[in-house]
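Sanity check

After download, print the first record. It should look like this:
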Amino acid sequence: MVRREALTYRSVGVDHQAISRSLRGFLRAVRPPRPSGHGRLRLGPGHFSGLVRVGRETLALTTDGVGTKVLLAEQLDRWEEVGEDLVAVNVNDLSAVGARPLALLDYLAIPRPEERILRAIGRGVGRGLRRARCGLVGGETAVVPELHRAPDLSGTALGYFPPGRPPVTGERIRPGDVALGLPSSGFHANGYTLVRRLVEREGLRLGSPLPGGGAPLGRRLLAPSRIYTPAVEALLAEKIPVGLAHVTGGGVRNLARLRSGVGFLLEGWPKPSGLFRWVADLSGLGPEELYQTFNMGVGFVVVVRSSSVDRALATLARAGEPKVWVLGRAVATPGVHLPALGVRYEGY
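Expected structure tokens:
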């Protein structure tokens, strides 16, 4: 039997290295000025959210979108899930610096105004906002048939720090700290260019279940991103985390964003199951590509002192997170290392 060449994110048009080079060029070209007046930047590009000091207050800002998952929503004519994703991808980035979500602005670029679709997206957005306890303060709906054949959903979120809560930037992480992993609900909103190409190549039916039964493949692929705000808020109320990471595009590499000079040795990452086992088996991708493309079962990472592990696990259980993995520990060597897989990433 002739073995098919493995698909990679690069082979389907998403080249991480080219993206990084282009982004560095963009940032060098921007050369932003310092904010005028009494505002100043505390945390710039490269982290999960930007931090701005205004007077005595620190605000967090982030922006993100749902990406090509909307094309799957279009195929299935199901839109509520990607509405929820629109909230999740933003509020989770706010939570990754310890900010409490305050407000969301949405940007909907659509080929035509279809009330039925926008109403369904709105229901999903509303569900996500209620979960995150975040308000919607406005947005933009652009009808651009020349640019988009399917809706493009993105947003910008604003967060704040309650009195007595400093930002959690990862600067306090030290070797010996423990990384805890919160489960994802699936691919969340990353890797869908590759997933959809794989479905197409294999001639899979979205209405059929995966081997072993369960919900149809399309429904499982469309499962909305989890919102980790309640869990993070519970931990922050107890002043437990020293680092927080939202595992999105870039996969496990996201941990390298937390603190330069410190790395992570991850010996307890869960074995792939469900959709992650399916995509690994069907795609032929090796671990290095899989773990930098998908979240591989862990959607959010909390870093705590080793003495705080039991308290963190108990707090998470009370917040509705009984299934938490002890992933590994922070080490003095930079990079992210999964020794069982023979994979090491030097940075994000």
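If your output differs, re-run the checksum step. Summary of this record's structure: The two ends are 38 Å apart (CA to CA).
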